[in-house]
Amino acid sequence: RDVSIPTIAWTTSELESVRSSRRLCDYLEAEWPRLGLPRDVHILELGAGDGWLGMTVARNLVAISGQSTTRVTDQEGYRIRSLSQNVAYNVAKGLPLDNLGHGVLDWEHQQVWSDGTQEGTLHLLIGADVVEESSARHLARTIRDFLSQKQEMLVLLAHQMMRSLDANEAFFQALQSQHLEPWIVAAESQASLELKEEAKGVVILQITCQKQDQWLLPWSDSLTGLEDTFYV
């Protein structure tokens, strides 16, 4: 894991969100052969923040395949500027990020990703700590828009149950209104398995269309017991 984030960028990243990014990366690295993704895989990250997750996925998991792509996105303004600077910094270091792209995708304002990659060609949609009460319904709608193009698309979010109970409620209600279902496929703690309010640590949520659980991933113990372990 040699993706670097310049010191100045850490001022724009919440430490707990960094934890979620690391845990989703842990999960992807452990489960990659079992995710059922094609060799030439196309990935998009929502709310990429400092870009560490998307760059590390592009660096470690798909760099060996020349036809794969990873796209990291965030809102306009300082977020996309910081993201762009971090990508440029790591490209200048010589990391194999030739197939990495970055751009604006702001679900709060119904913007769509428009770099020439069609939604229907994406295989994996990821995000870490992207659930906020104020934008929960917009996020759910955006996920639905992607899944309407390809129902078998894999949608994986790293989420902290105790970060905001109000955000949890808003997001899960929004998913239901969009005919989507959340499934926990990995968790740092046992309490998270039943979406308990006292759940500690990060869970990995897979989002599917309702009654489409044929694409549901099996449970993974790759994060179990890590709630008190520092992330790297």
UniProtKB/TrEMBL annotation:
<dbReference type="Pfam" id="PF10294">
    <property type="entry name" value="Methyltransf_16"/>
</dbReference>
<dbReference type="InterPro" id="IPR029063">
    <property type="entry name" value="SAM-dependent_MTases_sf"/>
</dbReference>
<dbReference type="InterPro" id="IPR019410">
    <property type="entry name" value="Methyltransf_16"/>
</dbReference>
<protein>
    <submittedName>
        <fullName>Pre-mRNA-processing factor 6</fullName>
    </submittedName>
</protein>
